[in-house]
User: Fold these one by one.
Assistant:
Number 1:
Amino acid sequence: MSEKKTYYITTPIYYPSDNFHVGHCYTTVIADALARYKKLKGYDVFFLTGSDEHGQKIEGRAKAKGCTPKEFVDPIIDNAKDLWKSLDVNYDKFIRTTDEEHVKCVQKIFQQLYDQGDIYKGSYEGWYCTPCESFWTESQLVDGKCPDCGREVVLTKEDAYFFKLSKYQPQFEKYLKEHPELMQPESRYNEMYNNFLKPGLKDLCVSRSSVKWGIPVTFDESQTVYVWVDALSNYISALGYNSEDDSLYQKYWPADLHLVGKEIFRFHTIIWPIMLMALGLPLPKKVYGHGWLTIGGGKISKSKGNYKDPREFIKDYGTDTLRYFLLSEVPFGSDGNFSELLMVERRNSDLCNVLGNLVNRTVSMANKYFDGRVKKNTNPTELDKEVIAFLESMDKEVDEKIEALDIPTTLKLIFARLERLNKYIDETAPWALAKNEADLPRLNDVLYTILDGIRICSIELEAFIPSTVKKIYEQLGISGSSFDEFEFGKVNEYKVIEKPEILFARIDEKELAEKLEALEKAAQEAAPVTTNEISFDDFSKIEFVVGEVKESKKHEKADKLLVSKVDLGGGDIRQIVSGIANVITPEEFVGKHIIVVKNLKPAVIRGEKSEGMILCSENKDKVEIITSSLPAGSKVR
Ligand code: MSP
């Protein structure tokens, strides 16, 4: 007996969140559909998902709640698993980066890279985006903000270990030439090449001393492993790599497909393959970077108020309405818009009008004309043959589209067959045949052709809308069907159920549109009017004082900045970095009595500590430093 071919597919591991939205469901539902499809096609599939639990963000959130990071995360993970269950996501393993096996595996990986000289100690200064847990160089920032999420970044300097990405660039580029299929779609390959490979890879900072909630570096307790090295390793630690039992690793690695969102494509197609290369392991066969699901063209997020728990949609419209929308609507690889109304329109036009109606009409006619019993069509007419051939040609076409990861087109191919069956009903007019005793044998054959056509389409549909397909099989009176029975005529006689349940009740789009509009209006009216006002209490928290500038010099690395020592009275001398080098020279500045915000949280600006802020007045491009004739330490109110 020949061994089954394996198929290893992964989603990214998710940051623990109570605010999972439809966008988060996108990658996982697609991965689930692909995994199911391959399983149905006889592959030995391993489908991995999980959670990415280390890092500064979780540490901070747990602290704010007064619990340990693990205690904080546990219920969130249960919640995520519950969401996947309600979406019929049938993963083979859910890995958590806090799993002991994973932690040990990452420590061994780090140690190996260090022992072989690919990780070395240095010190790191970079712009760090806390939400994204990414370091950026100055030139990568967009308007001084994180290029991925657009949020504030903080200049950070600390001892750290570095991974020699640059050393592997030639070997990696050679590999890419031989395996261009690694990065898909092609447009994203170009982006990676132009933005990262062409300018030359820089060594990567792979440890942090300021992040405590992370995997400890075994040979240096002051450091934890950089979250992305930790997270990416999940794809092999989940298979038992570096553990006593690595049989799953032996069986499934390299992955056939890492499915990821476009914003994390870089980590998966440059850092991860080079890590594997350094470890002497095979690289994944394919990384596919998909686009985002957007709302009104923008990001989905709780802060924007366009976030809704996907379970609410499932409650209102059922799992398969949401699954079908996620799978069919967005041209794969591009961004696509989500709205409740769009989803309902899709449900009505495809699931209700085409699929649901077809099943319902056919089962009802089988009951009405033959007490639910319909025998095999052994005398297919030319029309029947044409319809059967169209049905049977579907599999090859679908296979090709699945190979190209083009699920929306796959679904179109299947729905074209369902539409053909609906048209066949109109062409054969069973209700007219039923009027004539002599036409009853033909009526049987017509109904069989439709019933068996529905069965064949259901085999193809199962991976995408599994619970609906289960209901269809029940209505057809069969326990199920499989690709082994893809041919027409595999069922000798149908005995359909007596009272078919409506698969997708029609939803009134006009009514829904009005309801949604009213909700939006109410939300707008209820939203507090935002102004820039702050309360007196908040204002009185700010301490303004007069300071005397004692020393001042230009910042070594930034033309616009002055680094000054300012006396705030009572021996309180502060170093303050300010963007006034274009306004005043250091020599002119010394001796001035200026106004300073004394209790501003200290920050490091371009590597220099700054402990306060100097007030200026500004009009167009004219800036003046506000001064006072009173001595240092005088209060300003
Ligand atoms: N923890 C990292 C992944 C580490 S993998 C080694 C992470 N997590 S995430 O929770 O932020 O994102 C998980 C997945 O959800 C990503 O593939 C991301 O692209 C996807 N999506 C989040 N919002 C999305 C949309 N609005 N639309 C489509 N997918 C989006 O990144």
Note: The first strand starts at residue 6 and ends at 14.
Number 2:
Amino acid sequence: MAALALLRGSAPARLLSGCVRSALTGASWKDSGSRRHFSNDKILVELDEATGVALMKMKNPPVNSLSLDFLTEFSIGLEKLEMDRGCRGVILTSAVPKIFSAGLDITEMCGKSAEHYAAFWRAVQEMWLKLYGSNMVTIAAVNGSSPAGGCLMAMCCDYRIMVDNPKYAIGLNETQLGIVAPFWFKDTMTNLVGHRVTEQSLQLGQMYPAPEALRVGLVDQLVPEDKILSTASSVMTQWLSVPDHARQITKSMMRKQTIDKLVSQREADIKNFVGFVTKDSIQKSLQIYMEKLKQRKQ
Ligand code: CO8
């Protein structure tokens, strides 16, 4: 259903998100010359009306972790752009230095109720459905480290540019936390880098420093930090030179099967997540991992 909506030229996730739709009244556009802005607590958006390109910056310090609040705000922001006829492309980047996104907020998966876990996981699914199923051209300007859910966000985009700095790493590191990436994380990665690289990456929970990420195809291009946005704009111009309808139908053709798979199993996937994350052994693994993060800091 999601990809069918994409074929018709409307935003697929719109069909899937009653709760998000009702929250859309949040931030409103502000004009300044040929640019329009809106922001909410967690994201900053600037739309250049001349080019139809929006710059979307994630701003959830210290590490842009994907909390329930962040995911909700993100989906609202993306939906707003998707519905805006003046917007054809989005560049997704981070306003937090050195971090693109630390992935799912681990504190949302520790010591909470089953209802909370279900709401959280639905919001993770929603973000993925919206970003992976977007009609717009989406380019990730990965300006920092990007583990797990952060890597997923980048992989959802049509093109990835990363800062050429080996200190920044990207990958699906779930097994390092003692947890398992769900099938749609796996499918997104397989579609991007193929079965073999995905199989190895997922089992090892591998984080790739930028040059390695380029080598395995997890990102498309490396550039110096100060060139990342200008490069993203140039790449965007190239993608937008293709007629929208032809590009959108092609994108849908490539992604429909993967999207439909989650749509048809959405409730079962939530149930599976709640069952998994409420296990004592998984709670313990996550707590140990959080403690390790804090110790590393000290
Ligand atoms: N969630 C919550 N808090 C986090 C997270 C996170 N993902 N990452 C970091 N933090 C916290 C740290 O604990 C620390 O908190 P405090 O200041 O209170 O001590 C603060 O953010 C800053 O962290 P660092 O000092 O580590 O910051 P650095 O700049 O040194 O490093 C990194 C930034 C590289 C992002 C580093 O923090 C890191 O590696 N974080 C862990 C990232 C990670 O492993 N994420 C995986 C999340 S799981 C996921 O996304 C998908 C799960 C799907 C499967 C679910 C099935 C059950």
Note: The first strand starts at residue 30 and ends at 32.
